[in-house]
Predict the structure of P-type Na(+) transporter.
Amino acid sequence: MAKSKAKDAAQAAHVSGQSNQPMSRPAHALTYEQVAAELQTDVLSGLSAAEVKARLEKFGPNTLGEDEGVKPLRVLLAQVANAMTMVLILAMAVSFGIKSWIEGGVVAAVILLNVIVGFFQEYSAEKTMDSLRSLSSPTACVVRDGEAIVVPSGEVVPGDLIEVKMGDTIPADIRIIEAKNFETDEALLTGESLPVRKREHSLFDDNTGPGDRLNVAYSSSTVTKGRARGIAFATGTFTEIGAIAAALRQKESRVRPVKRNQRGKAGPHRYLEAYTLTLGDAIGRFLGVNVGTPLQRKLSKLAMLLFGVAVVCAIIVLSANRWNTRQEVIIYAVATGLSMIPASLVVVLTITMAAGTKRMVERHVIVRNLKSLEALGAVTDICSDKTGTLTQGKMVARGAWIPGLGTYTVDLTSNEPFNPTKGEIRYDTRQPCEIDFRRAVSEKDAAGLITPAADLLKASQSSLQNFLNVAALANVSTVFQKEGQWHARGDPTEIAIQVFASRFGNNRLDLMKEGNVQWEEVAEFPFDSDIKRMSVIVKHNASGDHFAFTKGAVERVLKVCTHFCAADGTSSSSSASPSVIPMTEDRRMQIITNMETFAGLGLRVLALASRKMVDTVDISEDTDRNEVERDLTFLGLIGLYDPPRPESAPAVRECHEAGIAVHMLTGDHPETAKAIAIEVGILPKQMDRVSADVASSIVMTATEFDALSDEQIDQLPVLPLVIARCAPSTKVRMIDALHRRGKFCAMTGDGVNDSPSLRRADVGIAMGQAGSDVAKDASDIVLADDNFASIVAAIEEGRRIFDNIQKFILHVLAENIAQACVLLVGLAFKDSSSLSVFPLAPVEIVWIIMVTSGMPDMGLGFERAVPDIMRRPPQSLKTGVFTAEFLVDMVVYGIWISVLCLAAFVLRVYAWGGGELGERCNETFSESCETVFRARATTFACLTWFALFLAWELVDMRRSFFRMQPGSKKYFTQWFYDVWRNQFLFWAIIGGFFTLFPTLYIPVINHAVFKHTGITWEWGIVFIAAGLFFAGVEAWKWAKRIYFRRQARKKSGLRNWKDMDLEERVFGDYFAGSSSSSSSNDNSSGSNTASDNEGQTRPLTPASTRTISQAVTQSVMATQTRTLTETEKEASNQAGASPRD
């Protein structure tokens, strides 16, 4: 309390522009060196972890006040104020109204129990979702202990060194240290609609207003251009935006606005319209039909439909009894109506989704909205980036080519990619296209001799030095050594190039070091995803000359190159040098050939170029970029290798087995993209077998794809699996093309320009580490580890959640049909007074719905994925959970249960009871009602057991309960391992099993409340009925397996599917001579459907063919990828099963 008061007092005394703990002057009036000194931070390595912890404890989290969080009272009210509970309250009111005190009291107790259990379950679920929302909140890139790390914005403290780039949300008020083309959108704070350009060296008076402090960037503003580094001096409520935090937290009104004319007036009918719509919205929220996810809304509508059916059933009961208004008739009608109410449906759905999102976090996937959980299971195509997603994002410069000098190849000798002192450089005077890199794997000297970097620099007059200058200075990454360890900050591509330059002693920090500044940066033109180039203007202090240094995609750099450095001259930076000759078409082809050689090895190839600036007047960041990037001299190529993640190939293979096509959309050269795509399995390794019409479409550049009209794209035999040199607009067109083919696609993105494609995709996936805040805000889910395998894990989890939702809905509805059928058919049983005798008492109905079945339904929501969940096609969102199979199962199981229950009742009454139905047996127990009460108890026991056993049977909707693991060798005991695996479901069923006995044998409760009596020999009927129940359900599953197997065989026409090679199964439609090439528009092999519909798991045989890039890097980065077969064995062993054959 004292700490809170002290904070409030400090905030009240806070001066605009000051830190949480006041400095000598506001931050905008101090130089950044003074700010760093007063906040005791290092402008290069930032704060230490210990200091961050201390400051977080001292200043508190970087938030704008207390979040609303989860309100217990609101959760409690939601349990009462919903359609299902209101139906039960209505039933309770009717019961009390006709003075049926026991039934009314039981329903009241059930309502109370339902509210209490629902409150704790949903409160826990809401807390889970609240914690997940914090995970998807904006993040900040901070430098601590010399390492750049990403942390939640709430963990930023005063003194933190912050790095921001275009698309980021600034996490705190920061004093800028370095700004490159840096502009921010401050409309939220100042109302200024135009971005504001920032300057790090400017100083302002203490009383300067927030809008004029050009050396400060404000919390919650967005970076619209460039990049910057700065020191956080104010966090939380001490920021400028903290002063207006109350306005930011205002809630949106739920009252519909009144439509007014141009004069601002509205007639009475407009007010009536607004009030009517507002009332309709309120009723819709109460009923749940206009809030929540699409599935939640659909289930709320289903509940309303079932309520209508319940009313019809009640009318039927009254009609069958000639509208007799006696108490027992009305109670019978109420019981029949209650039998159709799925009371726990929406609650179980919410809990299942919350548990699913929590499980996804464990698999490095953060769900930003619940609707994406439903969409994930329907994904048919994944459009993924390459760098950092399919690959490790840890680039290493493996080769370089400088015209007139030769080829430089780097052999790594350690696992320290940032250490420029590790590794050896091989030099060969030949061009890359003249070197046999395949032979270099076994004969190292085939790629040149090992030569020290110093000797290479001495041997070159200027070409190598000029090349290294561009590599080091057209580069914003930082590579430095601290306490004997090498660290790096920046983009992986630029870090790799900076390390390469540092091998020759050409580190950017050394070239621009204070006290010995050889080069000074004048202006920077950041990398643009549309033009794919990055340039800087630098000044050589020794000569006073200005140079433009450029790097980027080879084709894009060649477009602005007019000269070619053909020999190692003395002044190759100048086009006047004899070694620099005009660029010709032959020279361009020479460059392209060498680039394709590098790219064919799986290397990402960039071109480096430069020119001497003649007119240096008014050169700044405002200079027209086109004036800078022109008339350049080509200096050379550098090839970077980004090894695929070990888990990428198995993940892609798993997608293919699941009927999901994987597309790679990358900014790399087509040959580089093709090599990596083959390595991870996106493209077939047997590319020579691909039919000619498909080969031209399977790999395309963005230029080729964008040149096609929508009609031409739709006429392609297949959509491209690889699009190289991809621009953000290309991603949008790809999504549209997929949608026109009826596909449901997921798209990855990380940059600001990816936002349109992320929003257009059915599931937008942002990168948690490399992604901008703008991209995250536009996405549906965020990958915490930027890993493609996490996308596959998310899809698997989405399918599991979808399956489990389908299972518990089927369980609930099948029970409702069974109970309704038993009661409606039971209308035929008339006693001596011609009133219907119900086979199930009202309290029994409520007990089964709320007590017996409620917990098993939740247990089904927690069930793990079935073994073949990723070996079947994606489900359709058009049908959702209510597939044809679902609807037929619901009817079959419901009718089968009702037949067995009615048979038990009839046998006890007519076969062994003489047909004695007594009199007034719906109200009280008497000797004449002995038979009816025993028959009713028998029926109740049967229905209870069937409801519990049906939950176990629905763990897998097709496989036998006794054989859910087809590869298991435990033929007689595997079922026990399966039921024990989900212990929540196990104990829920055991609990339901044992709660049956008190209701049967405790005096008063059995006769007065449940309207039945204890049974003895009738247990024989129950056991026989249970056996028949299992037999019927197993027979139905067996028939389904036979049916779907035959349907799959007819559809695919493949009898030896198991004997086919995986690549033949997946890419069979693409190969020349394929009989099914006409169906290749689906981008997936029809054989996947065959496998899945059979409901069988199939072992995989991963291909062993190695690509050239694997061969080149074998001695350096040997990675072993576990096959799916090994994964399946582990999963099977964990489930208590033996490995599959």
